Amino acid sequence: MSxxxxxxxxxxxxxxxxxxxxxxxxxxxxxxxxxxxxxxFFLRKSNTISYPEERRNYSERFRGMHFISLDENKLxxxxxxxxxxxxxxxxxxxxxxxxxDPKENPVGVAKEKRPKAFDIDALRCCFCGMCEEACPKDAxxxxxxxxxxxxxxxxxxxxxxxxxxxxxxxx
Amino acid sequence: xxTEMMVLLAKVxxxxxxxxxxxxxxxxxxxxxxxxxxxxxGPNRLGPFGLFxxxxxMIKFFFKESFIPxxxxxxxxxxxxxxxxxxxxxxxxxxxxxSEIHLVNLNVGVLLILAFTGLEIYPIILSGWASNNxxxxxxxxxxxxxxxxxEISMSxxxxxxxxxxxxxxxxxxxxxxxxxxxxxxxxxxxALIFWVATYAxxxxxxxxxxxxxxxxxxxxxxxxxxxxxAIFFMSEYVAMIMVSAFLxxxxxxxxxxxxxxxxxxxxxxxxxxxxxxxxxxFFLKVAFFMFLFVWVRWSLPRFRFDQLMHLGWNILFPxxxxxxxxxxxxxxxxx
Lengths: 171, 335
What we know:
The complex is a heterodimer.
Chain A: H1 17-21, H2 26-41, E1 66-68, H3 83-87, E2 93-99, E3 113-121, H4 130-134, E4 140-142, E5 157-158, H5 160-163
Antiparallel strand pairs in A: 1-4, 2-3, 3-5
Chain B: H1 2-37, H2 53-63, H3 74-84, H4 86-93, H5 109-119, H6 121-130, H7 134-165, H8 170-179, H9 183-186, H10 188-201, H11 213-216, H12 226-251, H13 261-268, H14 273-297, H15 305-334
């Protein structure tokens, strides 16, 4: 490749004399910061919040920690169909199915299969919400809880008992 | 003899208390002011408006481990913070606060202040060299070249004003401004050059190359911790107060009353109110320039080092020289 015949053109905009002088343009910047200063100092407004005391109100569609919804008899809606486990791209859901004890089952055939274990590894989960989309019974759902910090890795493994606690945020 | 010593001691204590007492407010305003300018809240937990945060910070500085790097020059390493506060405080002492309070009344006050601002470079060079750290060394080198470059245009701007005032005595300078006009109206260009140079002198943004955080971590005080760092930090703020007071004295009438105040004083008919109002107007003027320091810091980005040198030597230096010649001619023909 020869470089001899290539003509390069400088396309950058030349500075105007006002910009070169610098003194005429910096007051503009000063005015911006002064406006924000007045906004913060006199009007007491800020863009940040004092987090633990104030919390942002996220959208209704926010995808936080999962939960499993219960019906009026406190039975989980999940019928252990494995659709969420199949669709999960991160493979973080592990379900073990069993037959529900007929004596504890007032709704009969609609809920004769139940999850014996329903484990979610929150550290693997990518919060894509596809489990929620796939569920035919609206059993697995995602709450608006985003405070998922834990002390150990084991604490981030959530079981059926934890997942089926009542969640008010999103039903 | 004893009473003289007592007066001297009282003056030293007064200046020390004034500087040490004013710095926390400056730091508080730096932090909260920057927060307001950026739409944040800033430290607002401890005490009213977060004012006690600085007490907590000071306590922390006192009780942190005093650490000396292994390969540093121990004596110079410790000497640098020990002398860091001296030059700005000594310079402040020679500035009149009002017609009654003038701690060091010399007829060469301007020269004394210039001498002490020149000395401000020593703690920086000592700390940079004694720390035995490349970043510290670079920071110290940058600070020294910057200080020397801007000191020239600063002195030129100052000289052009001295031609007008015809005296080195700060009280006389203020009296001239009270009788005629403030220096900034007589020679706005010199005021501008002097003002720009003060930012380079105090290593403040947009000229804070000496501490350029993104390139050399913290510059000359990188290897300092605990109270030794706090002393460098304080000396920076005391230097800011000092140059603001000097700028106010030279160009903005010093303790000369602000417009409207003289009417209040004469209407009340009480003579003792005059120094009070003088002190108040001096405080307001200095406070305005301290606010300007914060305002400029959070508005303008940092210069590159070659741009800094270009501005200092190719623009401010010829400009101040031309200004000096012009003022010399004006002063010669009008007098």
